Amino acid sequence: MKRVLSLFLSALLLLSSLSGCGGGYKRDMAFTYLLPQGVDTLDPQTASGESAAVVIGSVFEGLCRIDEDGQIVPGVAKRWESSHDDTQFTFYLRGGAKWSNGEPVTADDFVFALQRALRPETATPSVDDLFILRGARAVHGGEAPESSLGVWAEDTLTLVVQLERSYPDFPALTAGMHYMPCNRAYFEESAGHYGLGSQYLITNGPFTFSSIYSWNTEPGKQAIGLSRSEHYKGALDVQPASLTFRIDYDASLLADPVQALVNGEADILTLPEKLASQAEEQGCQVQVLDDAVTGLLLNPQAAALEYVTTREIFFKTLDRANLLDRRADKDSNEAMGIMADCVVWNRSPYYADGAKLFAAQDDTVLERVPSLLEMLKAEQMPSITVICPDDAESIDIANGFLVSWNGKLGNAYNIEPLPDEEFEQRIAAGEYEAALYTLRAGGTTPYQVLKAFESSSYPCLLQDEQYDADLHALTFELPSYRQLESSLQERYVFYPLFSDKTYYVTAPNTRGIAGSPDQGVNFISAKKKD
User: Fold this and answer.
1) Would 421 be classed as within a structural domain?
2) 159 touches 93 (CB < 8 A)
């Protein structure tokens, strides 16, 4: 009996020690995120860019969120239901949701946000994601009053949304910035300063501003400091005490990102697969998302590639089979088009119908080279350089482009392998002719991928007014998506090769941080060791 009791006490002590330290991970800790660019505004209805979106995802909460698996989960809406034909959605808001000033979040906050986003004077960037709402185009064009918009508050906690047409995947759009709530009274009191500083914003997300000085815009010290919101009541308790988004930081942190994670100077970064593996060997956690497509990106703004025919020839002379065979990961899937595996239509994978939307290899296009050269007043095809990440697989795939072109186009072509940081800088600055580039979906709907090619978007530099107009006229039906995707294919800007992944890597002493396909980062459940 004593032996049994002794064993029981030993086991109890072991369990106590394990549960007592929880693996050593604690709540009420501080976390750091390095923003890739600066932030001009945190007004969800007017902000743009990856950096603003990440911060807004922490200080605001929409009707829904997109989780790390690409699933649509409750945000302010605890549940929702749709009509039989998916043309009307009713969102039931959770009771107790509050703004950071203690006022309740209501259905009217969402009505006002959408009305305001459609006002021409708001100048909402890429406003097209709202045009699925009934009457939105007419309201935006000043042809109808805001009251005609198909969005209304049935009561304080019930929001009804009517759509122009059936759209089963509509809840995914409500996770985006334009759909975030806006408190009508507070906005009007801000007198034109809303979102331009921490003193001109109330928030409804898991984090909020610590003080009116939380958003530091002093050159060299730019950062946004947040603390856990005492008024936030979501599905999960917020674990971190604070969250700092650094804007100004030493470039050496990104020159050696693995060390930055190991040293705790950053708590989460997206890294290439090779660096993610190195980080994992040093105790970092790696989260993998199927949210990207890798292929050949041509810059239409480069002098050598300004003509569509030139880009078409470069695409159609590629040996696709040879390029696909150069992928080291033989389990990697071929991309059927520009849409990543996370993108859905009617709750199913976007290419579930077997569609293939990429330029087919066609060497007969070489017959058009003489007329092109005559137009260019040149003796041979322009020589271009392909930039690519400086790793063996990327270099081999980029060399595959050269193998195709050098043998067919009567000129010499080059590759320029670059360190990851310099590669991203060159892409961001538009200082390239061609690139082996990984395009992230930016969300789970086709619209969010197609938006990446809009003139105001980064990094595709298409600058095509007709494409912008076609995107603006999108009807959110599969034929409309496919038509726009086909027209993009005929502009020969991005040649998809591989369905690819994004690697979110977190510091060894952290747990619970999660990235998502909309490029958001969720810190709600984050814990850390001392």
Assistant:
1) yes
2) yes
